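Appendix B, Record 12. Input sequence as logged:
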Amino acid sequence: MRPLRAIPLPSLISVLLGALLAILLAPQPAAARDRIVVGGHPVDAATHPWVVALASRDRFGDSRSGQFCGGALVGVRTVITAAHCLSTEVLGVKHGEVDDLRAISGRGDLGTREGREMPVSKVWINPGFDPESNAGDIAVLTLADAMPEGATAAMAGSGDAAYAAGTAAEVFGWGDTSGAGKYASGLRSAQVKMLKDSACAKAYPAGTHGSSGGAFESRSMVCAGVAAGGRDACQGDSGGPLVAGGRVVGLVSWGAGCGEEGRPGVYTRVSAMAELVRAHSG
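Logged structural output:
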């Protein structure tokens, strides 16, 4: 299982081939078919316009609007997402070579043309992002055109009470709903809880990069999940927002597996990056 939660280009091809085989071959066992990781329920994208899909049809095809990651609209021309979403590993080329990078708002079903597609005019990737530990996993996209002020979401600031352990939170995305490459066409939401830093450090201790893909670092990361597992972000959800107290507190970054007991999702701590975001906003 990949620790990062974007869809790399080779994996997307595998997903499409797998979908074709699923039609031709016998159905999966009920236990695998019923396991929902991302979201317990669909949500209306029109009422959540600040949840955006990052897309490139040139790199990922027209199916699902070319979606490969998520993001959060935090200013009329500013989208925040995970830095690893813009990596060569995910895109297959350098991000500057992607001519049709778009942020899609208000499109619940990625198979439709509803909502609005906004060209990205500028990309800033945090130079402090460490791909080994996944620390500092954030990028800022500047849109070519402005969105309405009411379509944006506020970022959590330093000391925000929404980070308190046990606080109810929601994670949004169009990613894998099974942990086995079954991608959602519609926007979904999963209800999770904010976790103590100590719990996350125990789940992902320093020096274990090889087994989990990263190590928890509280300065730029935060964890959320449920004790029994089963609700989590997964591949295709990277960069999407974790929301608590009506504010964006995290961005989907990485984790071991999807929805596994004792392996919560790890998110970029938005409050630690808010000043960087403002400094690089369009």
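The first helix runs from residue 9 to 24.
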